[in-house]
Amino acid sequence: MTEPRKERPSPESEFSREVGRKAARKLKAQRQVNRTIWFGLGMMGLVGWSVAMPTLVAVGIGWWLDARHPAGHSWVLVLMPIGLVLGCFSAWHWVLREGQEIRDREDDDDA
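and the corresponding structure tokens:
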């Protein structure tokens, strides 16, 4: 008994579909150019603030600790890198999450 042969899509038709998908994505991106510029600027600002705020809070706590509990070391210098690392981790996590949402949205639009 022989099995019926499954026809594979021709490479040309697969190539045509891929070109069509990429062309549709490019046209959509061109229509949304203003939104993407403002979105990009907003994302840069948000990433900057998400790094700056924990760093400034840590510096403020360090100054408060230095004034209240003087020690042989500076609390500002101890807490500043901790705040910076927390801010960078927060920004990194947020950018990854936003990137995943954008990819999911593009996949939904392609389907």
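(Above: one complete record from the training split.) Residues 25 and 106 are 8 Å apart (CA to CA).
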